Amino acid sequence: MAALSGQRRLERRWGLLMALPAILGFVIFTAGPMVASLVFSLSDWKVGGSLEYAGLDNYARLGGDDLFWQSLGSTTYYTLGAVPLVMIVSFAVAMLLNQKVRGLAVWRTVFYLPTLVPAIANVVLWIWIFNPDFGLLNSLLRQGGLPGGMWIYGESTAIPSLIIMSTWGFGNTMVIFLAGLQGVPRHLYEAVSIDGGGPWHRFWHVTLPMMTPTIFYNLVVGVIGTFQVFNQAYVMTEGGPNNATLFYVYYLFRKAFRESEMGYASALAWVLFMIIMVVTFLMFRNARRWVYYEMAGAR
Amino acid sequence: MRRRDLFRMGGLTALGAAAAACGGGGGGAGAPGAVELQFMYWGSTFEQKAVNKMLQAFERSKPGRKVKPLFTPDEYDVKLNTLVAGGRVPDVGYVPMAMSFRLGEQGKLVNLFPYLKKYPQLAGYLPDAYLWSGQDNLHGVATANEIELLWYSKSAVAEAGIAPPPADAANAWTWDQLVENAYKLTVDQNGRHPDESGFDPKQVRQFGISSSITYGAAWYGFLRGNGGDIADEQGRKCLLDAPEAIEVFQNLQDLVYKHRVAPGPGQLAATGDDVPGTNILLKTKRVAMVVDGHWSLLDMNESKVDYGIGVLPKYGEPFTASQVAGASAVFAGTKHVEEAVELFAFHIDPRYVDLYQQGLWMPQEKKYYEDQAAIDSWTKNAAHPQEFRTAVVDYARDHGVPDFRNRLKNLSAISSDLLTPALQELETGKRSAAEVLKEVAPKITAQLQGWHHTQEL
């Protein structure tokens, strides 16, 4: 017994030591800054100035800030467009890649490849695709005799353009769907076939219900991710034209680092954090109704 | 286009990675007794070379001084803000104009007022060059006196068979003359002009003119020339909804959508938002005439463009925005104030710095616009074309109006939250200038906090 507890002690010590880099990383780079930003959000701190307690002033100011509402609206619009579109496209492609076809590995690689393109290279590519004068999209439309669009340069088309662009990086979501599809038990499909069901029945009564946990996971991760959309606004549109693509995190960035209003920007950050938390909570609440777990009690 | 405002002094879209902007606040590294200073700046790759040469000249002329250049071509305000927040500011450097007033008010920049006696060359500046954040608190100066000009491609003008844009203010084109000539200079892929039937606005080979709607310095001369301004004398009421202002902006919008002689948003961009430099636009004859700052001269010469310089078209008065530049300042965090001020005085002194002869900068000292020998000292060389004297030196001295971006309080918030979005809307051509400006002007009024302090020396 003494030997065992000695080993346990050893394990505990070493375990803690091994986990230390991760713990330190979390404390220094995540928890610390979070606490700091909470403190900043209660102050009127501007870079270079002194930190003075301002209570909930920053939070009160949010309500009357048109751009706060505008950025929240743009971000929600983008989320509502991009998340379903990416989910549908990646689910469909995952289904195709779940078939027994020749060159499967090649296809899977091809569809995953865009995910590996660095974010900025990706953005530069799409800037060219969207160019109203000599971009790929308008050239194709012109050849088909259709009028071209202003894409990211038009106020009403900017967010839809970015939503279209978001499907480009569906590879990660697709891989998760693919893994989920491969976990669907064969015998359920066989049962449907024996009962005389066709492909639609197999999809509707087996694939979809069995996939709900995966769909749910991708939904939550997708919503959290798109609420924090930033790169496109930062590199492609700078929030324009006329604030059409002023996404929440970009607005926050602008307040913090261009206008140096760290206090206000920190309040923006905390409000976003709370919004995401509430939305995620609601999704979990709602999930009980439509997500099916085969193993009872698993969540 | 918005971010570009900050980096307009560079002309070229800045390339290359930033030098790591982290270092001690000018700690005395190296030999004992040696003072190491840090100089932070932005600019094009040509400007980078020129500034580094200036810093080396400083080291040679002052033994025991070392200067570490911190070249930061992109996201300058973000990086500088981060350094200020971290308490690791450089000793001397460029500061984006609006930010300089904030830092000045916060006491983060050394007050240069007491040093004017020690460095008399700093005391003879054009009055608009001084940046005050309160009575007797001189937190910096505009790095160079830059003005807006009408650059053109000589061969495009010759091909169109028109007289080149006038190079002296007395003979400046009227707006109508500008439009008329821009028609002749605009050509689609089939060689048609916008006033000919069959002209294809989607396939324009050469645009007649490019004059930015979103870039304040480009239109401020027009606005003032037409008797308007951005705000009233108290700086408390926005005047962009006045008829004079509406006329100026409607004319700019009409260049794109009515006359079709100017590019709309996205039409010049090769990759994204950053429009190629004026030197590239003229050299490739994508555009025949461009309204841009004097600083383009360096890049124009470096890339061997066949360019000419004209004055801007006039409304009532032939005005152009002057002092279109960032600020230069000494940071209060420096451990070596005296040496830092010494470097500050050096880095903008035409006697030691060849950025003036090379065409990047225009001097701030009055004598370089008034005294013949002093004028010759920076303009009599191959980088400055014949018309430079009337089109730039005389034009700046007699017809410059200081850029409102150096003078209006709270401008960075007004600009990013209200003004730029409104001007972008104008640029997309969906609504007229009257509609857009009447809507935004009261909102800007609500954010106005007056003009910055100014005083006589």
Automatic annotation (TrEMBL), chain A:
Major localization listed first in the record, in broad terms: membrane
An annotated GO BP: transmembrane transport
CDD domains: TM_PBP2
Protein's UniProt keywords contain Transmembrane: yes
Membrane topology: Multi-pass membrane protein
A single Gene Ontology CC term: plasma membrane
Intracellular or extracellular location(s): Cell membrane
Residues of the ABC transmembrane type-1 domain: 72-283
Superkingdom classification of source: Bacteria
Keyword Cytoplasm applies: no
Pfam families for this protein: BPD_transp_1
InterPro entries: ABC_transporter_permease, MetI-like, MetI-like_sf
Transmembrane regions: 14-40, 77-97, 109-130, 150-179, 215-235, 262-284
Keyword set, alphabetical order: Cell membrane, Membrane, Sugar transport, Transmembrane, Transmembrane helix, Transport
PANTHER family recorded: ABC TRANSPORTER PERMEASE PROTEIN (PTHR30193), ABC TRANSPORTER PERMEASE PROTEIN YESP-RELATED (PTHR30193:SF1)
Family to which this protein belongs: Belongs to the binding-protein-dependent transport system permease family.
Record protein name field: Multiple sugar transport system permease protein
Organism: Nonomuraea pusilla
Automatic annotation (TrEMBL), chain B:
Cleaved signal peptide residues: 1-20
Alphabetized PROSITE patterns for the sequence: PROKAR_LIPOPROTEIN (PS51257)
Pfam families (UniProt xref): SBP_bac_1
Source organism superkingdom: Bacteria
Keywords, ordered alphabetically: Signal
InterPro entries: Bact_solute-bd_prot1, SBP
Protein name: Carbohydrate ABC transporter substrate-binding protein, CUT1 family (TC 3.A.1.1.-)
Organism this protein belongs to: Nonomuraea pusilla
